[in-house]
Amino acid sequence: MTDLTKLTIADARDALRKGDVTSAELTQACLTAIDAADALNAFVHKTPEVAKSQAEAADARLKAGDTPDLCGIPLGIKDLFCTKGVPSQAASGILAGFKPEYESTVTSQLFDAGAVMLGKLNMDEFAMGSSNETSVYGDAVNPWKVDDRKLTPGGSSGGSAAAVAADLCLGATGTDTGGSIRQPAAFTGITGIKPTYGRVSRWGVVAFASSLDQAGPMTKTVRDSAIMLRAMSGFDPKDSTSANIPVPDFEAALTGDIRGKVIGIPKEYRMDGMPAEIAKLWEDGTAMLRDAGADIRDISLPHTKYALPAYYVIAPAEASSNLARYDGVRFGHRAKLDKGDGITEMYEKTRAEGFGAEVQRRVMVGTYVLSAGFYDAYYNRARKVRALIKRDFDEVFAAGVDAILTPATPSAAFGLGEMADADPIKMYLNDVFTVTVNLAGLPGIAVPTGTDASGLPLGLQLIGRPWEEGDLLNVAYSLERAAGFVAKPTHWW
Amino acid sequence: MLDLEYAAPAPKVIAGAKHDWELVIGLEVHAQVATKAKLFSGASTLFGAEPNSNVAFVDAGMPGMLPVINEACVAQAVRTGLGLKAEINLFSAFDRKNYFYPDLPQGYQISQLYHPIVGEGEVLVELGDGTARLVRIERIHLEQDAGKSIHDMDPTMSFVDLNRTGVALMEIVSRPDIRGPEEAAAFVAKLRQIMRYLGTCDGNMQNGNLRADVNVSICRPGDYEKYQATQDFSHLGTRCEIKNMNSMRFIQAAIEVEARRQIAIIEDGGAVVQETRLYDPDKNETRSMRSKEEAHDYRYFPDPDLLPLEIEQAWVDDIAANLPELPDAKKARFIASFGLSDYDASVLTADVANAAYFEDVAKGGGDGKLAANWVINELFGRLKKDGDKGITESPIPAARLAQIVALIKAETISGKIAKDVFDIAYTQDRDPEEIVKTDGLEQVTDTGAIEAAVDEIIAANPAQVEKAKANPKLAGWFVGQVMKSTGGKANPAAVNALVAAKLGL
């Protein structure tokens, strides 16, 4: 078998169970593909030894008839997850050389289910970015390419998206604070779901903005997302914000039958200057759901326009505090000090050297909005806006809407470096369709449904009711089947 | 419970160069919560461990680590609140107080600024002279302690010990109701006493388990009453906060010297600057720690890693139902049921272990007053001389002292013999009843035997008899002789009566 890496998780699972393939073979195929894909800069720490030994253990389990869904499935892990004994740097210089002595809950659960870790994936530094250009490891590159330009895979889970789209792994973990799973998924033609806040434990995931961060799977299909999300989910007493709610079999929810489901189309997402092809993508997706028997309804989420500014107050505020621990005292980078330097100089130099420009910008913004005299004007007001945004969704769901369809991104993937001189706000606008979901704590999924004129993938976003990921995945599954998006990037790397 | 009535003490007045000044004092007492584990981690709180040995990943601020509230700490805070007759807030929440320091690994302290777990309460602070101050408690909140920075181990480096990092503290904030240095110390002592009764803080000031920030301001006589009437702080002077005091003596000295500093500034036409100060006991002065310009902007905001803390009334009620008897109630009861003086009751209830010991002696011995005398005068005195032992180290358990009291009360032994029995019991680990029996120390109450002894002494000392008849005060000599001849075992009352009768007095 030459194209093992192209298998979906579901197909690989079935093949492993049947004994048509071993995890060792599957894993080796991925490791070979990864070694040939350095041009994508998706994997920043390869862990072939870990992978081989996990694959061997998985094969033994499979042989013994112990076959959890992910047993033997090779995955990539975003660098934001702490993995025991393996570099975990959140793509930041300040965590240079950091190897945790603990395993994140998510990766523990995946490994307990028999999953194989191929390595750590590139990302924006501390998950702050929408293009994977803020990484200390350099840009991750989108496997999609239509001209000479190298394109961004999106961010912050850019490495995860690139690796899955390029068939370097069967699935990958991502994290999403304002769109960091859904935007890169859309840019690379794959599926990614951010679950309800509290569905997946944050323990052992390097924090960006604690009240918004959620981990989720990035996969080739909706079914794979359902399989992987189930393995990542569950109550964790080590995370106080984790919900003690049973985890259903999300895959079992994928009937494809959405007849009678009410799909809301929010008018506020029809932004001024929306590109025609995005508008068309959205209309086409709406038509597909209607054709599948859904009841399409125009809805209003009136506070949407305040979401992005509120997000860019709350997320930096929490980040400024969460990142205070990177001080050079206990782990990671510590600046070389000059004679006579004291603790203040150590902090200043260490953080100036260790953090990149975008992280520094957000730490400063966050510090500002929390400071005395500005707290009420910024942070408290943003919290109020957040409550209103959540209420908008609550009211729509209470009125009978089952899911909401929106574009996932305002455009297709852009060229790396193209935004280098742009106002940072322009980059932040990438999150315009996704941040509301984080602010409201809802599940959201990006599904590839078409391409732009040049052939680059585009995705739509579906937003679901809290804790109803099964229903949401089923609507996404229906959309996926109707859209029939099967395009793959041409292998150029 | 009985309510004891006290008059309020007079405020401390300091005479300045120009006129009199009064003090206004409020305290923030930081009490380490007595629990096995830290506020948000499972690491041990044990004092004196190897540096950095009681540190969980979350205490060290490792990436991705999250706090999880320790229910035992919450229960202790609620218990303390109930002990201070305070309002318990069923909804409270944790906030982050952000600042950089090497012994603060997260870069923030988790505290409760906006929604503390305990609201308003009160403490009656007795001053031992029959007066007492009712001090209002503003709030109690839970927060993390910081670690320890060590700057004197190396000429160029500092070291950090994180054992204490994340240990739960209760910050107990008083209203500015305290009016003098002695009252301030008495307030801290009373809080400590209550918390020891409750078992919520061991009160060990030497280890830093109880420490206080003291807010001091001065005002002219009459101004404080205006504040009390209106709760308008503009009637009071500008306050300075003296940080981190961990001795009653220093608290008093620091308040005194700080008040005098403020008086001097104002009488010189200056103005007191609101700031944080440190007390230097060697020089007996306070020094500015940081000025307003250097003051931290703590950027408090709700901790997004923790959900609001919601507790149930039934849980609080359960804690309340199992609260031990508190010092005020115990003291009132000792006075009422054992007939103790206010002073004796105070001494015996100062420490909960002493009170329990006394109560066992009083009940076992059948005489509260006698028991109080024996515990306070004999036992405490002996323990003090014997290496300042605590009640729990007493070689005489309460049951044995109770036997002695019972033996005295039954007139089986005299008070004098009792002291010998006490000494034997203390040093030889023996039962008082057994000592009395084995050593034949029972009091002789048989009047025939005593009469014979009296007759013998009278017959042998005719000259003394004549003197005594002339001067009845000399009868005591005969009593002494009789006691001596009976080895101290004769009932003194019987001897007195017989001597008087035989001498015809």
TrEMBL record, chain A:
| Catalytic activity annotation | L-glutamyl-tRNA(Gln) + L-glutamine + ATP + H2O = L-glutaminyl-tRNA(Gln) + L-glutamate + ADP + phosphate + H(+)
What are the alphabetically sorted keywords of the record?
ATP-binding, Ligase, Nucleotide-binding, Protein biosynthesis, Transferase
Q: Recorded GO terms, molecular function?
A: ATP binding; glutaminyl-tRNA synthase (glutamine-hydrolyzing) activity; transferase activity
What this protein is called in its record is: Glutamyl-tRNA(Gln) amidotransferase subunit A
Quaternary structure (record): Heterotrimer of A, B and C subunits.
The EC number of this protein is: 6.3.5.7
> What species does this protein belong to?
Loktanella salsilacus
Question: Active site: which residues?
Answer: 78 (charge relay system), 156 (charge relay system), 180 (acyl-ester intermediate)
The entry sums up its family as follows: Belongs to the amidase family. GatA subfamily.
Q: Name one Pfam family in it.
A: Amidase
Query: Which HAMAP family does this one have?
Result: GatA
Note the NCBIfam families from the entry. Answer: gatA
Give the PANTHER family listed for this entry.
GLUTAMYL-TRNA(GLN) AMIDOTRANSFERASE SUBUNIT A, TRANSAMIDASE
Does the keyword Secreted feature in the UniProt annotation?
Answer: no
Q: Where is the Amidase domain?
A: 25-473
Automatic annotation (TrEMBL), chain B:
Recorded GO terms, molecular function?
A: asparaginyl-tRNA synthase (glutamine-hydrolyzing) activity; ATP binding; glutaminyl-tRNA synthase (glutamine-hydrolyzing) activity; transferase activity
Q: Its family?
A: Belongs to the GatB/GatE family. GatB subfamily.
User: What does UniProt list as this organism's lineage?
Assistant: Bacteria, Pseudomonadati, Pseudomonadota, Alphaproteobacteria, Rhodobacterales
What NCBIfam families has UniProt attached to this entry? gatB, PRK05477.1-2, PRK05477.1-4, PRK05477.1-5
Top-rank taxon of the source lineage equals Bacteria
Which PANTHER family did the record assign?
GLUTAMYL-TRNA GLN AMIDOTRANSFERASE SUBUNIT B MITOCHONDRIAL AND PROKARYOTIC PET112-RELATED, GLUTAMYL-TRNA(GLN) AMIDOTRANSFERASE SUBUNIT B, MITOCHONDRIAL
Residue span, Asn/Gln amidotransferase domain: 356-503
* Xref: HAMAP family: GatB (MF_00121)
Q: How does it assemble?
A: Heterotrimer of A, B and C subunits.
Q: Is Nucleotide-binding one of the keywords? A: yes
Record keywords: ATP-binding, Ligase, Nucleotide-binding, Protein biosynthesis, Transferase
- GO annotation (BP), single: glutaminyl-tRNAGln biosynthesis via transamidation
Q: Which Pfam families match?
A: GatB_N, GatB_Yqey
Q: What's the Enzyme Commission number for this chain? A: 6.3.5.-
Q: What is this protein called?
A: Aspartyl/glutamyl-tRNA(Asn/Gln) amidotransferase subunit B
What is the reaction catalyzed? Answer: L-aspartyl-tRNA(Asn) + L-glutamine + ATP + H2O = L-asparaginyl-tRNA(Asn) + L-glutamate + ADP + phosphate + 2 H(+); L-glutamyl-tRNA(Gln) + L-glutamine + ATP + H2O = L-glutaminyl-tRNA(Gln) + L-glutamate + ADP + phosphate + H(+)
Species of provenance: Loktanella salsilacus
